[in-house]
Amino acid sequence: MRHGKKINHLGRTASHRRSMLANMACSLIEHKRINTTTAKAKALKQFVEPLITKAKAENNSTIEKSTHNRRVAFSYLRSKEAVAHLFSEVSEKVADRQGGYTRIIKLGNRLGDSADMALIELVDFNETYNATEKKVKSTRRSRRSKSSETKEAAPTADETSPEVDIIEESTDEETK
């Protein structure tokens, strides 16, 4: 029975699993999103979110700055470039977020072996789902009101200076 066994072994030995998660975490930090299986994405989420929290705590002004969190992150990631990127760019983006730094989006099944695939990404780096940027919705207007507004807004010949000539565009009906 499986009572109390919370870790997904992913069909690998402990050393292989740690290396695979470290490589996937480095790729996630570098590229901001990766495609993988759903089981690996869930395991990666548990692996990388505490590291992002440590990086965020390092940049917090209330906590004394030390190299301890960097050394802990390096012991998990084993890549100087990924640690530097994590503590500089990623930690600045997630400074105001309380948790939930990653998002898993299910993609469907892989063609070869029908494995459940997922996209795992860092939440604050996706411009599509970013809530801070709001699109301005344009109102829909009829053609008559649009053309009448442009005629009213256009200056008359008396208002313009003598150097500027007003050229009116001909419509398709007038040319026929």
Descriptive account of the structure:
The structure is a single chain. The protein has 176 residues and is of the alpha+beta class. The protein has a domain at 14-125: Ribosomal protein L17 (50s Ribosomal Protein L17, Chain: A, Alpha-Beta Complex). 45% of the residues lie in helices and 11% in strands. Strands 1-3-2 form a 3-stranded antiparallel β-sheet. A hairpin with a 6-residue loop joins strand 2 (102-109) and strand 3. The protein is globular and about 70 Å long. The mean pLDDT is 83.
What's the number of helices?
Answer: 6
CATH fold naming of one domain = 50s Ribosomal Protein L17, Chain: A
- The oligomeric state of the chains shown is single chain
Strand arrangement within the widest β-sheet reads 1-3-2
Q: What is the beta-strand fraction?
A: 5-15%
Distance, first to last CA:
84 Å
Q: Please state the average pLDDT score.
A: 83
